[in-house]
Structure formats: C-alpha cells, structure tokens
Amino acid sequence: MRTAKVIALLLVVTLAGSAAATEAGAIVSWGAIAFDSKALDANDFIAISAGHYHSLALASDGSIIGWGGNYHGQATPPDGNDFVGIAAGGGHSLALKSNGSIVGWGANHAGQAIPPDGNDFVAIAAATYHSLALKSDGSVVGWGGNYGGRATPPDGNDFVAIAAGVDNSLALKSDGSIVAWGVDSYGQATPPDGNDFVAISAGHIQSLALKSDGSIVGWGLSPEDGFSKYHSQPTPPDGNDFVAIAAGYWYSLALKSDGSMIGWGNNDDGQSKPPIGSDFIAVAVQGATVEYSARIYYTHHNGVALKKDGSLIGWGSAGEPPSGNDYVAIDVGSDYGLALKSYGSIVGWGWNDYWTVPDGNDYVAVATGLALKSDGSLVGWLSAGEPPLGNDYVAIASAGVTCLALKSDGSVVGWGYNTYGQATPPDGNDFIAISTGDRHSLALKSDGSIIGWGDDRDGQATPPEGNDFVAISAGDSYSLALKSDGSIVGWGLPSGGLFFDKYYGQATPPEGNNFIAIAAGYQQSVAIRKEPSDHPPVGDQ
C-alpha cells in the first residue's frame, strides 16, 4: 500500500525573518471531497438533502452549501441567495429558485442534471440517474434514466411532496398517505400504511418518512438483512423533535427543531458527520490507495482539523479524534490520525498501526510514522524505518514510506521509498519548508521560491516560477502552494483526464487572497480561509 499523505503547514513559519501570528479561520475544500465549515457554523438551516456521497443544506438567507464527495462537482452549488429548495442525487444536484425554475449541476450521464423548462415548479427530488419535480398544479414530472419506471410518476394532481431514490420514487398525497413506484427489490417502494405522514425521502435500499408527531419511520433493507448491518441507514434515531429528513445512498440525515443536524449510517467520505465551526487553525487531509492484484483501486478519505482552542475534529475513515483542548499539531493517514499535545506527547486514533505512537513527552512535530524531538533528533516507526542520526533537525514530512527532514542549516535529507527519486532531495542549504506526496516532493526556499523533484508525469514536481510563496503541500499527483498575498496556486494533474482521479479539480483551488493554510490529499484539497476576509494578507502580518 502506498499512501498519498501530506501535512498542512501552520502559518507560524517565518516570512522574511518575522513570525506570522497564527489566525483562526473557516475550512474550505475542493476536489473529490468538499465542505465549507463556516457555512455550517450556525443553526440557521431550513432544508437539508443527502445524496450518494454528498450532502446539501439550504440556509435561511437562501444560499446553498455542500459537503462530502465532490467527484463531479455535485457538492459545489452555484452562488446566489434566491434558492428555496435543494435536492442531492448520486452525482448531481438540483436547486429550486424562488421564481419557480430549476437549476442542476454535477454528473449528467442520463440527462438527470438537465431539468425541464418552466417556472411553475414547487418541489424537486434527485436520485442517481433520474430526477423528479412537483408542479404547482399537484402533478409530478420525471426525467433522466427510467430503469424500472422510476422516472415515470403516476397520474394525478393531488401530490404535495416527492422523493427520488436510486431505483424507486415516492410521492406524498394531500391526505397524508404515501405512494411509490419503480424497483422494489428490498421493499423500499412499499411504504407503510397510514395518513399521518408529512415528509418523505428515498435512498438506495431504504426510504424514510416523517410523521406529524415529529418522529421518523424507515423501511427497506433492514440491518438484520446482511450487509446493511454496517451502514444501518434504515434505522432512524428515536425522538419526536425532527422537522426534516434526508435519505442518502448508505446514510441518512435529520434536522431537529433546534436547527441542528444529526446523521447515521456510513461515513466513509464524511457525509453523515459534517464538520462545524469557523475557529480552525490547522487542517490535514489524506487519501490512501489500496492496490489489489487486478489493479482495482479503493480509496479512503480522511481529515482532521485543529481548532484555535486546541481541540480536534475529524471526518472520514479514521473516526472521532480524542477529546481535549491541549493539542498543538496534527497529521493524518488513510484511516488514522495523529496529534501532538502541548506538553510534547503524541496520541493516535483510528484503524491503522501508524497510530501506535512512541512513548515520551519531548516531541515537537509529528508526521506519518515519524516524529521530531525537542533535542532535534528523529524517531521513526513502521514503514518510516530508521531515520538518520543527528540532532540538528527542525522540520519533518512523511508520506508513510517516503520521509524528508529539514536540518537547521537549511539542507534537506530524505530516506525510504524512492522509486521516482522523491526521497533524494537536491543540494542546497536555503530551504525553510518541505512536503512529500505519493511519488514527488517539494521544498520552499528562503527566497520564497519552490523546487520539486520525483515523479513529474503530471507536472506535479514542476512548480510555478516566483518567489512570493509561503507554504507548500504535495498531494498524490498534484501540488499546492500558498502565496504571500493569501492566494493559492495548484499544478499537476488537470481537472479532467483519462483516469477517475483527474476529474475532481483538486489542483484547481478557489479564487481569493484570504487563505492562511493549505493541504493537498489524494482526491481532495483543503484550505483554511481567514474570517473576516478583510484581514491583511499573509505577507504583511
């Protein structure tokens, strides 16, 4: 297994000899996994929608935010604050505007993201390959793929709500009863009897309904029926204070009357547990690629963020980080996390041996399988191997099997996996920061320029010219750099290409000059954005 892991650099490094103050900010992301933590800060949501691996939320000001899987751009909604409805599908999303028209974005293999013309729509629903819309006259229309008749709604004009599942659809009638059509392999298209339902949602092999008393019921494949034991998506939480529901592919969300959200089911891409807050000071992301004999790849997505109060939040495959507010640095791998505490000890969590960390309380930096001690020496474990001797090291970077260390004289040493030369740094003693990805490495020089080495098939080891860079991050086949004006540049694999990992735009950062930290992973990128945006640029602090 090779990991494509990178360390997010806190901007407390020196710039032109003066230390920049650590600022807090909101997390933004792009590429395969997306979320905007600032938008999730307040309890002002009025609607939610759960897709295959992504989620949407409609805020009270009419704007939309998205998080989770963003492989086709489905978690990156359009700008604007005139939206009144949202629908997250498999690889696409829909939004209803206040003028009654519909917009769509994301994957469009079967025409599911191209809604019909008109401005008499009052509700929308999006599935994997088909979509539905409710008209003001109470009738329902469908478009996209029609396997099993899922996009062919029944006649009638007494419908008040709709829901589109992967292969089935639901409609709520004005008398409070539910009708369903499409594929019914697991009972997902066989709703319960009754006329006290007020909302519906259809997922993959499960469906949900909200009752008038605020409780939720679910039907379809149950946790006792085999593989859904792990995902548990048809089993809603107890309670009667729910006001909205959303059934995704392997997970579900519910909105409570206090404006908060809860999720249950699968969380591989962080879709059932969105991060919250706008007081983060560091972030790290990872995406591991497990290669099988048939050369089929399975990817994990994992991230952790350090908040200004010293606490941690996490998303993806590593699960919940430990509690506490005495953390000062972080790192992350395919399904584990690492954190350095203020008194110098290292803690780890997750499902990977890398989190079995060394004892001691004299550490000042941590990376995958590698730690820097206060005396300037290095400690390694697992595939990081035995690091070089010495006590003149000041910074470290590790991709698990490839390691770099920056010495106090400004030179860089490397060891470990070196098939592409990524562990053989160039000569020189004017380096101030380092980063290593899956098969390439980067170094930031004291004059603000960047050099790269290792695999350069996608141009990931050929940084842009210039000497106004203040931070670097090497991902899988791409790289990011933060400039002194607070803007981000990316290079390497393009936003489109032959292979699936080139479609996600992870090397195409958002515009703006209010960023203070960056992290490049496998299929996703993350940055911390200063809030408010009128703070001085990084280079002026």
Describe this structure in words.
The protein is an all-beta fold and 541 residues long. It has two domains: 2-28 and 275-540, Methylamine Dehydrogenase, Chain H; 44-265, Methylamine Dehydrogenase, Chain H (7 Propeller), CATH 2.130.10.30. The chain is built from no helices and 43 strands. Strand 9 and strand 10 (92-97) form a beta hairpin. The protein is elongated. It starts with a strand and ends in an 11-residue tail after the last strand. The model is unreliable at 1-22, 38-42, 223-233, 269-286, 288-300, 495-502 and 533-541 (pLDDT under 50).
Brief overview:
The protein has 541 residues and is mainly β. It contains no helices and 43 strands.
**Coarse shape:** elongated
Question: What's the story with the biggest beta sheet?
Answer: 4 strands, antiparallel
Provide the helix percentage: under 10%
Global mean pLDDT: 79
Name the structural class.
Answer: mainly beta
Number of domains: 2
How many strand segments? 43
User: Spans of 5+ residues with little confidence (pLDDT < 50)?
Assistant: 1-22, 38-42, 223-233, 269-286, 288-300, 495-502, 533-541
Q: How far is the first residue's CA from the last residue's CA?
A: 41 Å
Biggest sheet, spatial arrangement of strands: 1-24-25-26
Q: What name is given to the CATH topology of the largest domain?
A: Methylamine Dehydrogenase, Chain H
Please give the radius of gyration in angstroms.
Answer: 24 Å
Strand content: 35-45%
CATH superfamily of the largest domain: Regulator of chromosome condensation 1/beta-lactamase-inhibitor protein II
CATH class of the largest domain: Mainly Beta
CATH architecture tag of the largest domain: 7 Propeller
Count of helical regions: 0
